[in-house]
Amino acid sequence: MKTCGISLKGPEKHLHRDHISMGGSNPAGTHISLNNYYLEMNHQPFFGIMGEIHFSRTNPDVWEDELLKMKNGGINIISTYLFWLHHEEEEGVFRWDGCRNVRLFAELCRKHDLFLVLRIGPFCHGEVRNGGLPDWLFGHPIQVRSNDPGYLAYAGRLYREIGAQVSGLMFKDGGPIIGIQLENEHMHAGAPWEMTVGNSSDWISSGSNGESHILKLKELAKDAGLDAPLYTCTGWGGATSPEGEVLALWGGYAFRPWLFYEPISEHPATEEYAFMDYHSNKAWSFNYDAKYNHEDWPYACCEMGGGMSCFYPYRFTVPAESVAAMAIIKIAGGCNLIGYYMYHGGTNPTGRHGAFLNEYALPKLNYDYQAPLGEFGQTRDSYRRLKRLHAFLETCGTELAPMRTVLPEGASAVDPHDVDTVRFAVRTSSGGGFLFLNNYQDHWEMHDQKDLRFLLELEGETRSLPARGGLNLTKDTSCILPFHFDLSGAHLNYATAQPIRHLTVDGEMYWFWYAPRGMTPEYCFDAASVAGIRTDFGTVCLSEGFKLFT
Fold it and tell me: What is the CATH number of domain 414-549?
């Protein structure tokens, strides 16, 4: 028996919003706001589940079907890049037809009650030729990604064109667009100018002018009618994200083909699968180098690796387990807005003059990304795993969002090659919460963890999970187990199964659960809260108005 103890004693998460001005309402009175920990919808916790799909990389004939697949998979926010190159390949000639019809795409999001975040550049990257900048910019005497007046004139013109296309579709007008991302990885990463040949030739600058440039882009966006409750930027690598003006968004990738631009023989195991506390001013968190106090702003993600595109120097298969495990790591660490890049793959459009519009290190047309939904809409195992997780978040997200993260000692410093340490974390509030377990590690072979018992030290008691014996956590498995959980009026002390969702049919409440592979489902109730219990094949069925199914 291996016993893992953790003290859950301590103050509740301090929630505040006095320093945050982001938010807004639509004509129906729905209000979006933000506190220092999570998004709010009508002043209640809203757990955002965002998935990336690129409309210009997808056949418009299937947009509606694919958006419905995304919604059915639990996505409630769509994110998409708007690649400048795809719309103004020739200077002064904008195209909004076919797969470039952003207005139709946004209208379909509105039709199906999906929020939308537009990532409008001007620089996007996204493995697009020139990082999304048009070829014709290369020959102009301007400094791109800066406050150069010539560049800002072109950026303003682009934004005005976008604003005209989505006029009336902003959230304040009753539309779906709740967020605008400005630039991408500004002052962190560039991209090759595809006008030249080779990885060592001319590169687009990573940017200059720092925060003043992002603030100028925000001003141009508002002037163009792109007025949204939320403005965002990517934050990793020291990228520009002026505090209070934009919400910095984060992410993580376990498969990193860009490493192979350097002479290495194999991909290293990464730190992505150790539990972290991303919302603590004191704790260290891998790849989270925010310039602000971590507890003052939400840790939110827009680029958790939903897969990865193969590069010519590095070709690989992304296992489905890696996608779900990363989501569980981020959620356990205090992330209340998760976002996948990509959630839906696509196909690069071709240029008018024979040019391929991809970045040269990747396939010319394919941008399948091994995503949960593939290039042609095929559903993958990662889609099904995430759907189960998203159902849990839809059911329990309101209760989960305010809960603080608690880690056992040394959790965030676990060596990626350590196969013996049990990786776990807790999110808790008012004595209840969820135990997060992970036994997956990228680029390394894990083994089964057997006969585990978790001792949760609470105010006034120590809860053993399970009460007798131990549980098994098979390799590559990750899951979420509840404790002191209100189950439709019955008090569940703990379960060795993960809640999925509940339904009410003819006055009866049905709860559905996921039993992790190799783990025996067990449901321990407070006897005083239930009138009668019978067991059937390891599943507890409550006779008083609701039932459980595993």
Answer: 2.102.20.10
